Inverse folding.
């Protein structure tokens, strides 16, 4: 598309601004600059970079799911609630009902996927706006986790604590946790699915223009519902990873996490109108958000609310950048 | 009859009445209103008292949504308004001074106008998607409110300030404020061309700009108006509790407000709005919350019940759902569905 519209007269700078990969590159550059500055100021050790993944692995998984939905031009507000509910359900199944851990995990993943698919059906078949449909999902899953138990349930399974404490060595004293490995694997699978499968193409097509996708004969209904199911699955998986990180289920876990996930996707350069964006960008978005937290806690004198203010400022910078790049979009239409 | 059913306020009003009547078997004196200590008391009055901040926020949200936008920052704006007012009052030697309270209120509302201007500037001038533009303030705004309160809950002991969220002339002050807001909005939008302009901007911003409507100015105005109403709601909330809690004031009210607007029949796509519908929508949500308490549903099941009712309400409002539900009872063939509604998947074309 871009190659077709670019004439030889267009300058190199213009071509650069037209490149859809630019936001991701900018996020990467920002991450590297922040990391270099932080490393210089607080003398980061080698474990800081892997720790960004270790401490935010659940958010990476959730952001991958959010990327699928946002690429189709939808939105999923139920992510945080599904994360909280998955943790509670796992804790309830394993601790109270004594279900084997593997079976319980599968049940959790199934319930999350089913919840997402049902929201997708509401959105597609009954034309309920995604914002509202997933908002009811937010209430429903938060409510269900409170129904399961009002108190936190700690999981004392030896398998869980072994998994949680298992370190994957990366050479030297550097390591990754199991959760971080799962997060990386999720990103990898998502990249393959989005860029090398028919389903991935359909996701981009539906996000670009649903009407055109329909006229082209693409199965829009199936794609839209699957996308919400994928998001539900990723949220449930993020919930499981979060359990590994915290080792308990709490009905209030993951409150507001959907906003972190959406912010990460936006910082990663995906447009909320759909059709443009990369999963790798979302991964970088999460890492940038994680780096802000690390730097502010290393600073020590800054209070926690500065995290919120900086996140807001960063979001602002990125949307302004997207506007500069997006000027080509408005010029074309 | 069919004209009544087809009126845009029919479904919201029917749902509200059904919810209110549903309470009657559980609390026989649900509709009773009596005067105690010169104040009105009763279940209906408490629905109004607790519902007024939500109604105000929903009213502002209605206009924003009518222009095709959305404002996620209203909760943060509420927190900032309460924090600023309480911060100013708590620094005065005499907290009961009416002048100081008026200055505090003016200060808070002026800040809200600025915040609204900021949202409007991002949306109308820079051209950022509304959901993202206001997400910035939603995330950063709570940080700013915590910055003002220094991370503490500021408590104030001020009689004039407490009036805002309390009682005036035996009725809740909020009722007067909401009535004033509704009358002003109806007068401005339905008696002048302003409402039409707002709807035209929401219907097609570019087309209305080409037709000579100052689309940008209209958009900035609705965001300022929304933030202003959110600020008033924040003052009422903080005055009712006599404190400013930057973390919890107005938390998630944006979701309730958007839900209220949608239940009231204003589509999120913009181009159409119903002020009466939004008031009804907010009252439905508040009545639902009160109902959950009065009929004795265990508190942990609150949200499940709320979600279930909201899902049912959304589905009833969906024309596609109603058509499918009524299909077996209808003798005449249903009207042909538009092409885009087709639910049958087309034959897959191999790529």
């Amino acid at each position: 598309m871009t190659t077709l519209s670019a004439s030889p007269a267009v300058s190199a700078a213009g071509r650069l601004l037209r490149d859809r990969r630019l936001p991701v590159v900018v996020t990467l550059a920002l991450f590297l600059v922040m990391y270099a500055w932080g490393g210089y100021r607080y003398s980061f050790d080698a474990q800081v970079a892997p720790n960004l993944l270790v401490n935010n692995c659940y958010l990476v998984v959730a952001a991958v799911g959010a990327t699928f939905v946002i690429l189709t031009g939808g939105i999923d507000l139920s992510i945080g609630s599904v994360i909280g509910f998955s943790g509670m359900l796992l804790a309830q199944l394993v601790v109270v009902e004594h279900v084997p851990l593997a079976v319980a995990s599968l049940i959790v993943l199934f319930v999350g996927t089913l919840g997402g698919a049902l929201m997708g059906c509401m959105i597609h078949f009954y034309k309920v706006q995604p914002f509202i449909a997933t908002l009811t999902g937010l209430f429903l899953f938060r409510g269900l986790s409170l129904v399961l138990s009002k108190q936190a349930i700690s999981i004392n399974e030896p398998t869980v604590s072994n998994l949680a404490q298992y370190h994957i060595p990366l050479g030297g004293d550097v390591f990754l946790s199991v959760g971080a490995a799962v997060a990386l694997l999720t990103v990898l699978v998502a990249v393959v699915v989005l860029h090398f499968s028919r389903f991935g193409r359909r996701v981009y097509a539906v996000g670009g223009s649903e009407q055109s996708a329909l006229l082209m004969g693409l199965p829009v209904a199936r794609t839209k519902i699957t996308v919400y199911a994928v998001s539900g699955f990723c949220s449930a998986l993020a919930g499981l990873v979060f359990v590994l990180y915290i080792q308990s289920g709490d009905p209030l876990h993951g409150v507001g996490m959907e906003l972190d996930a959406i912010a990460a996707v936006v910082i990663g350069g995906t447009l909320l109108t759909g059709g443009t964006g990369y999963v790798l960008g979302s991964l970088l978005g999460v890492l940038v958000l994680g780096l802000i937290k690390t730097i502010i806690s290393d600073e020590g004198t800054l209070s926690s609310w500065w995290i919120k203010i900086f996140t807001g400022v960063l979001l602002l910078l990125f949307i302004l950048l997207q506007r500069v790049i997006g000027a080509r979009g408005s010029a074309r239409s | 009859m069919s004209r009544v059913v087809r009126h845009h306020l029919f479904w919201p009003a029917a749902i509200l009445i059904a919810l209110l009547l549903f309470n009657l078997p559980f609390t026989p004196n649900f509709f009773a209103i009596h005067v105690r200590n010169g104040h009105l008391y009763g279940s209906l009055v408490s629905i109004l008292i607790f519902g007024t901040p939500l109604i105000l926020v929903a009213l502002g949200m209605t206009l924003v949504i009518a222009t095709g936008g959305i404002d996620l920052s209203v909760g943060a704006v509420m927190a900032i308004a309460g924090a600023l007012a309480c911060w100013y009052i708590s620094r005065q030697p005499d907290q009961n001074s009416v002048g100081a309270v008026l200055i505090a209120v003016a200060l808070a509302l002026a800040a809200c106008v600025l915040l609204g201007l900021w949202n409007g500037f991002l949306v109308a001038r820079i051209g950022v998607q509304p959901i993202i533009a206001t997400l910035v303030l939603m995330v950063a705004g709570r940080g700013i409110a915590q910055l003002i309160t220094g991370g503490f809950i500021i408590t104030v002991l001020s009689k004039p300030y407490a009036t805002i969220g309390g009682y005036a002339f035996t009725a809740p002050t909020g009722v007067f404020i909401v009535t004033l807001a509704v009358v002003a909005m109806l007068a401005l939008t339905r008696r002048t061309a302003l409402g039409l302009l707002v709807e035209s901007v929401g219907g097609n911003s570019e087309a209305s700009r080409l037709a000579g409507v100052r689309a940008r100015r209209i958009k900035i105005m609705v965001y300022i108006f929304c933030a202003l109403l959110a600020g008033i709601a924040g003052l009422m909330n903080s005055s009712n509790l006599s404190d400013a809690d930057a973390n919890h004031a107005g938390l998630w009210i944006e979701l309730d407000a958007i839900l209220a607007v949608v239940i009231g029949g204003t589509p999120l796509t913009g181009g159409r709005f119903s002020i009466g519908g939004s008031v009804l929508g907010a009252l439905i949500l508040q009545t639902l919350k009160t109902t959950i308490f009065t009929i004795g549903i265990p508190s942990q099941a609150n949200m499940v019940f709320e979600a279930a009712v909201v899902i049912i309400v959304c589905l009833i409002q969906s024309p596609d759902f109603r058509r499918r539900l009524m299909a077996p009872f209808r003798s005449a063939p249903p009207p042909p569905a538009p092409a885009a509604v087709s639910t049958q998947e087309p034959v897959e074309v191999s790529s």
User: Anything to note?
Assistant: Residues 336-351 of chain B have pLDDT under 50 and may be disordered. Chain B touches chain A through 56 residues (CB under 8 Å).
